[in-house]
Amino acid sequence: MNTELLVSDAAHFRIDYEINPYMHTELQPDPAAATAEHAAIVAAHLAAGRRVEHVASAPECPDMVFTANAAVVRGDRAVLGFPPPERKAETSYFQEWLVDRGYDVLEAPFPFSGQGDALACGDLLFAGYGQRTDRRMHEVLAHELDYDVVPLRTVGPRWYDLDLALAVIGPHTVAYCPQALDDPSLARLRGLGLELIEVDLGEATRLALNLISDGTTVTMTRGAPKLAAMLRARGLRVMELDTTQLTKGGGGVRCTALTLDNPPPRGSR
Ligand code: ARG
Question: Is the C or the N end of the chain the one with fewer CB within 10 Å?
Fold first, then answer.
């Protein structure tokens, strides 16, 4: 699970605008600390045996460190994100990188937060909507990437992306914050027969769920000791990382990595 990741860097990470409730232009990241924080996250991926690809950040793209929003990738196909206007300039850099690597790259016809609102779990795709992703994207993702889409609506701007509200821990295990999803979404999620781990509102708002699990190692923020303990109790190795600087942009560990190796559908492409 999830062993090849596309990251960028924090060289141009700034708060130039406020497009989620965590961002405040008067609360700027410390450049050296942000670079060190990002480097430590990348080092943890490598220590966990994950492969890491790098796309250089561009000066006019202060949020480019959050590569998860660039696209969602399955097999050799990628559907690009369709970000808010403030982040539009990023798309061409990611598009170019993906095309250069030989991916079949499709443009999104509707607003779409990329992997931020599209978390793969085998053939399932937990697909967020209600904030940055237009629900019509779900049909596009089902059709273009052959996923069984599970639509999940997040309930407010704190959950502007689904990857803050839910995390795939293993092929049959998902962690989530119940207060972040509407009732039909909770019913849908609870009806899937998966093992579910509940994360409380306090830890979830400290971006506890913005983690990466490869089924063996979990890399996550240091701010969520209860979730870390629950994961360790399940036999997972947990690496807790500082996310103080990234949090000023409203992102954590998961936001800084686009998964490149979601397995393709069986017997296809
Ligand atoms: N400042 C960025 C934004 O608001 C943070 C994105 C975090 N990405 C994520 N996948 N949740 O767009």
Answer: C
